[in-house]
Structure formats: structure tokens, C-alpha cells
């Protein structure tokens, strides 16, 4: 069982790294930043996957993974002399809750088309469940990646040239 979960975590990290490379290349960063984006996405997404498989709720697991990406971004920003946002944001994009957002919109469409009261109530419950899950995951991503920047301003906002 443990080797199976290890393989799944590795595959999850690899797929997240591929997605992060695609997102990073869009903004034309230095080549080193693309590699760091892939690495951070693999670490963050596989950490979230492992935490969720261990029983943690998706919003909390996303928060832990986003905070890890934020902390590691500060380290790599100093190491390769590039802003942390250059590789932290592409690393977070594979964790955007697209499926929950899709289900929310689909539930809204079904709710608007349905005339049956019982079905409408089920659709309304699905809308709220998926909508709030989307909201909490997005908040976890934003707060998680911003928290290290706010906790360590000395490393985040270093002046590189003097006027």
C-alpha cells in the first residue's frame, strides 16, 4: 500500500510540474525560473495530494501546500535573484479548483432550468457546497502564498539598488 501511494504522489507531482511549466512559459521568465516553478508545483501539489490521501480536508491541505510554496519561493528568489512571484504563481495554478467551479456553474444552470421543487433543492445544495469549496480553496491559495511574504518582509522586499 505504501509503495502504491508513493507512486501516486510521484505521478501527481510530475503532472503538476508539467502544468506549471506551461503556465510559467506564458510570462517568458528566465529559464531558471521555469525549472523552479516546475519543482515548486511538484512539491506543493504532491504535498496536497498526500495530505488529502491521509485524511486532511482539501482546503486545509491546499493552505499547507500554498504556504510551503510561498516559503520555498522566498528561498529560491534569493538564490536565483528573481522575484518570488515569478515562480510561485505558476506553481499555484495547477491547484486552482476548476472542477468545483465547473460543478457550481453546472448546478446553477440545472437550478435555473428545473421546475421540480425537490430537484431544485438538491441543485441548490450542490451549488452552495461546490461554490463554498471553490471559495475556500481559492482563499487558502491566496493566504497561503501571501503569508510567508508578510511574515518575512526582510526577505521579501529586499532593495536591490540604491538611488
Can you offer a commentary on this structure?
The chain has helices spanning 2-26, 31-53, 58-80, 85-92, 98-113, 117-151, 153-156. The protein has a domain at 2-95 and 144-156. The longest helix has 35 residues, at 117-151. Helix 2 packs across helix 4. It has 163 residues and is mainly alpha-helical. It has 7 helices and no strands.
The whole-number mean of residue pLDDT values reads: 90
Share of helical residues? over 70%
Task: Extract low-pLDDT stretches.
Answer: none
Indicate the proportion of strand residues.
under 5%
Q: How far from one another are the termini?
A: 59 Å
Largest sheet: none
Number of β-strand runs = 0
Helix/strand order, N-terminal first: HHHHHHH
Shape: elongated
| Rg, Å, rounded | 19 Å
SS-derived structural category: mainly alpha
Q: Can you count the helices?
A: 7
What is shown here, in short?
By secondary structure, this protein is an all-alpha fold. It is built from seven helices and no strands.
Detail the topology: elements first, then pairings.
Layout: H1 2-26, H2 31-53, H3 58-80, H4 85-92, H5 98-113, H6 117-151, H7 153-156
Amino acid at each position: 500500500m505504501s509503495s502504491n501511494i508513493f507512486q501516486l504522489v510521484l505521478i501527481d507531482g510530475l503532472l503538476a510540474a508539467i502544468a506549471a511549466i506551461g503556465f510559467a512559459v506564458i510570462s517568458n521568465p528566465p529559464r531558471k525560473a521555469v525549472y523552479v516553478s516546475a519543482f515548486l508545483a511538484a512539491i506543493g501539489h504532491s504535498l496536497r495530494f498526500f495530505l488529502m490521501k491521509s485524511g486532511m480536508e482539501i482546503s486545509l491541505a491546499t493552505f499547507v501546500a500554498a504556504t510551503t510554496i510561498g516559503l520555498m519561493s522566498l528561498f529560491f528568489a534569493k538564490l536565483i535573484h528573481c522575484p518570488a512571484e515569478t515562480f510561485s504563481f505558476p506553481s499555484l495554478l495547477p491547484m486552482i479548483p476548476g472542477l468545483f467551479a465547473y460543478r457550481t456553474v453546472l448546478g446553477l444552470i440545472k437550478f435555473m432550468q428545473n421546475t421540480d421543487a425537490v430537484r431544485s433543492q438538491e441543485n441548490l445544495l450542490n451549488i452552495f457546497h461546490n461554490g463554498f469549496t471553490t471559495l475556500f480553496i481559492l482563499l487558502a491559495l491566496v493566504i497561503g502564498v501571501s503569508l510567508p511574504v508578510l511574515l518575512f518582509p526582510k526577505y521579501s522586499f529586499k532593495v536591490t539598488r540604491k538611488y
